[in-house]
C-alpha cells in the first residue's frame, strides 16, 4: 500500500489528514482517527488516501456509531480501509 513516488501534494494531503484526524471535535473520534493516522497515514496509497479524506468529512457522531456497530455503515464508506480502522480500534481497546 505504499506510494513510492510520493510528491509534495501527497505529502501535504497526508499532513493535513493527520492534523484533521486529531482535531475533529469529539475526543473519541480524535483518538480513533488520530491513532490510525499516526500508525498508517504514510502507508496509504492514493485510493486509500481519497477514502480516508472522505471519512474525515463524516460527522463525528455518525462515524462513532459506525465504528462501534451501533449503526450500519453506508455502502460508500464500507471499505477495506474503514474495516482496518475498526480492527485497529478494537485491537487498541484490548491493549
In short:
The chain has 95 residues and is an all-alpha fold. It is built from five helices and no strands.
The unreliable regions are: 1-6
**CATH topology group:** DNA polymerase, domain 1
Q: What gyration radius follows from the Cα positions, in whole Å?
A: 13 Å
Strand fraction equals under 5%
Helical segment tally? 5
Give the full name of the CATH homologous superfamily: Flavinator of succinate dehydrogenase
Query: Structural class of the helices, strands and pairings?
Result: mainly alpha
The biggest sheet amounts to: none
| Helical proportion, percent range | 55-70%
Q: Count of DSSP E strands? A: 0
Distance between the termini: 25 Å
Which architecture does the CATH hierarchy give at level 2?
A: Orthogonal Bundle
Shape: globular
- Strand and helix order: HHHHH
What is the number of domains?
1
The CATH class is identified as Mainly Alpha
Task: Give an overview in words.
The chain is mainly α and 95 residues long. The protein has a single domain, classed as DNA polymerase, domain 1, CATH 1.10.150.250. It is built from 5 helices and no strands.
Which structural traits does this protein have?
DNA polymerase, domain 1, 67% helix, globular, disordered N terminus, 5 helices, mainly alpha, 95 residues
Topology overview:
Layout: H1 8-22, H2 27-40, H3 46-56, H4 60-68, H5 80-94
Helix pairs in contact: 1-2, 1-3, 2-5
Amino acid at each position: 500500500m505504499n506510494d513510492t513516488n510520493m510528491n509534495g501534494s501527497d505529502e501535504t494531503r497526508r499532513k493535513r489528514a493527520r492534523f484533521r484526524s486529531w482535531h475533529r471535535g469529539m475526543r473519541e473520534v480524535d483518538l480513533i482517527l488520530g491513532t490510525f493516522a499516526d500508525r498508517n497515514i504514510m502507508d496509504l496509497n492514493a485510493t486509500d488516501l481519497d477514502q480516508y479524506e472522505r471519512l474525515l468529512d463524516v460527522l463525528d457522531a455518525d462515524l462513532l456509531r459506525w465504528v462501534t456497530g451501533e449503526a450500519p455503515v453506508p455502502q460508500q464508506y464500507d471499505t477495506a480501509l474503514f474495516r482496518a480502522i475498526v480492527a485497529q480500534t478494537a485491537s487498541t481497546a484490548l491493549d
